[in-house]
Design a protein that fits this description.
A 5-stranded mixed beta sheet has the order 1-3-2-4-5. 63% of the residues lie in helices and 9% in strands. The N terminus is likely disordered. Helix 1 crosses helix 4 and helix 9 crosses helix 10. By secondary structure, it is α+β, with helices and mostly antiparallel strands. The two termini are 32 Å apart.
Length: 268
């Protein structure tokens, strides 16, 4: 996963907070070094309000310039804590939302509908890594008759991806979802409207009916639900697989899938 070196507004805010804290300590030191005389206390009260602020701003600037590594460490530590918290929430959601993951009536099912282990995939038809994982799923489906596959349409790569996802889900009403899905994932059609309709016709489908049903509210609801579920699980890219209690982002080969399935069965 590629990351950038940008510091966010929140990080900058943290940086300034840390600097202000350091500056406040610096300002407080003379006052704690010894008891202030009544005359000096009176002078402090008469001091112009802007003087302390000016001193603080100068101290902040000096602290940032002299100790950038301390502030950057604070930002990185904060980001690490945030990442750990997101991972913990995702793990918990994986348990509490399992029924949505594996038994949602809007999500098409392949393999053995009564299988003992369910493989859930979030994917995009324009995703090269999804296409790379596709043969592995086909192999698992053929070699393991007890595997159930749940397809989560997750179009995140532009209008063509969304159009293809809608067409695939519309194919479900004609009993052709899995066939249509495999043809698309295998690269048999472009994700343009013309390509999608041509594919439908080549599979013996009613292309006009498919086009009408692509706008069905149930299809838009399914896509919205998948987006919300992906967000709850911390899924930001495709493909992503869920097998048992494991969530695996990125492409997976047949060997990797078999191992995930083996672990899921062992934990049953």
């Amino acid at each position: 996963m590629k990351t950038t070196g940008k510091i966010t507004n929140r990080a900058v805010s943290m940086l300034l907070t840390a600097a202000v804290a350091a500056a406040a300590v610096t300002i407080a030191l003379p006052a704690t070094a010894g008891a202030a005389s009544p005359a000096r206390a009176a002078e402090s009260k008469k001091a112009a309000p802007g003087m302390d602020r000016e001193r603080i701003e100068k101290l902040i600037e000096r602290y940032i310039l002299r100790h950038p590594e301390v502030i950057l460490k604070s930002v990185r530590d904060h980001e690490a804590r945030q990442k750990a918290a997101r991972a913990a929430r995702a793990k918990e959601n994986l348990k509490t939302r399992r029924e949505e993951l594996t038994r949602s009536p809007g999500s098409p099912v392949g393999g053995n509908p009564e299988g003992d282990v369910t493989v859930v995939e979030f994917f995009d038809y324009n995703c090269s890594y999804c296409r790379r994982s596709f043969p592995a799923l086909v192999e698992i489906e053929k070699s393991d008759p007890k595997v159930r596959i749940v397809f989560k349409e997750f179009p995140i790569l532009g209008p063509g991806s969304l159009l293809a996802a809608r067409a695939a889900l519309a194919a479900k009403s004609q009993g052709k979802y899995v066939e249509y899905h495999k043809a698309l994932m295998g690269g048999r059609a472009k994700t343009s409207e013309a390509g999608l309709m041509s594919l439908a016709a080549s599979l013996g489908m009613d292309a006009k009916k498919l086009r009408r049903e692509m706008d069905a509210p149930a299809i838009m609801k399914e896509l919205a639900h998948n987006r919300a579920l992906a967000r709850a699980l911390g899924i930001t890219g495709t493909p992503a697989f869920v097998v048992g209690s494991e969530l695996v982002p990125g492409a997976v080969d047949a060997r990797g899938l078999r191992e995930l399935i083996r672990k899921a069965r062992k934990g049953m």
